[in-house]
Amino acid sequence: xxxxxxxxxILVTGSNGQLGSEIKAVSKNFPSYHFLFVSREDLSIExxxxxxxxxxxxxxDYFVNCAAYTAVDKAESEKEKAFLINADxxxxxxxxxxxxxxxxIHISTDYVYDGTVSAPLKEDNAVAPINTYGLSKLKGExxxxxxxxxxxxxxxxxxxxxxxxxxxxxxxxxxxxKEEINxxxxxxxxxxxxxxxxxxxxxxxxxxxxxxxFSGIVNYSNAGITNWYEFAKEIKSLVHGNCKINPxxxxxxxxxxxxxxxxxxxxxxxxxxLDIEIPSWQSSLRKCIHILMPE
Length: 295
Description:
Elements lengths: L8 E5 L4 H10 L6 E5 L9 H10 L4 E4 L13 H21 L3 E7 L22 H16 L4 E5 L2 E2 L6 H11 L2 E5 L3 E2 L2 E2 H16 L6 E4 L6 E2 H12 L4 E5 L19 H7 L6 H12 L3
Parallel strand pairs: 1-2, 1-3, 3-4, 4-5, 5-10, 6-9, 7-12
Antiparallel strand pairs: 8-11
């Protein structure tokens, strides 16, 4: 009699965040996997003892780390906390995953780049973060790969979702509350619908199950290039808003943390290795708006 193969277990941290929530939403479409969703309240990734306990109690095949310190401006005054969660904890996770032969899929950011180039950024472009958040995420990438050569890091940008707090939901709120708003028009990038990224992560896991290998760094964002002002205008058009949107330069809007002016990710690598087409940011935005404001 053939031995029954056990169902692979996927642990997802940061399960109440945008991406974690989207993975939870699509998990019902993947019945051949067992999912463990843990929020920050369930598991602080910087607590080594807690992390080891969850590994001792479960056979974890895939560890999808969506947990992070994401308060970009606050990180400037909470550097130690940002590095503890985004760097030290990630290095420790990578080490524990390596010890348990668990595949680590870790989410990183376009903020590892300095924004001074003007062509889509490949995975091997020079990195030079210009704020504490970006520095902490870059250190996390480095520690993950040093401690676990098979780790996979996915850099993404401008993430939004029907879950959590994000630019899209902020715009919808401001359109209701204000007659006029200012939005920056000289920061250029590509929005990423977290629901699309969740499906890509599951596709990667399915390919690994089939024997394909994934490690190192890959970029993922939706197709197309825009700026925050044009992004806001597209949201407004989809909801038929009346709020006036004024374009302003970054120099007119002071924040504690500097932002890269250009952070468009080149996604040709992930398209090639997964043989996928990536939806445009406009089409994915429509899907998200439909969920947030069903007609």
